Amino acid sequence: xxxxxxxxxxxxxxxxxxxxxxxxxxxxxxxxxxxxxxxxxxxxxxxxxxxxxxxxxxxxxxxxxxxxxxxxxxxxxxxxxxxxxxxxxxxxxxxxxxxxxxxxxxxxxxxxxxxxxxxxxxxxxxxxxxxxxxxxxxxxxxxxxxxxxxxxxxxxxxxxxxxxxxxxxxxxxxx
Length: 175
Description:
By secondary structure, the protein is an alpha/beta fold. The chain has helices at about 15-20, 30-40, 60-65, 85-100, 110-115, 115-120, 135-145, and strands at about 5, 45, 70-75, 105-110, 125-130, 155-160, 160-165, 170.
């Protein structure tokens, strides 16, 4: 199966208050989504941005691992991912650009991307998953990886019997 490089856009150094607190939190939501994709048979790696200085630090990892997918999956469990949104959004855009430059399909899931998905698509994301995303990510990756045909950025499939309408990147319709 295809390779996925997971990352997120929260850099503690970009949040002076949290950087000074010196109490980083693991990106549990990102790790949870990565574990689910590994369980589905994907080769999974993680680039943790928490203590990095810049988004450019992902470049050697992209070059070395050559993933098919770059998944920028912010940790919805951590309230800090909702802080310094403008700066973290810029970091996400940089990560997406680097992923595209290395031939990756770029998928984004975050509270900010849910609110501003058009901007993320304009900045190079191929897909934006809206809201809680690990199950939608699994369905999207299984679809994009060859199980179902995708028409542009719109995809439709089923998720535990409910229809999934991917207009705008993964909005669930139905019960």
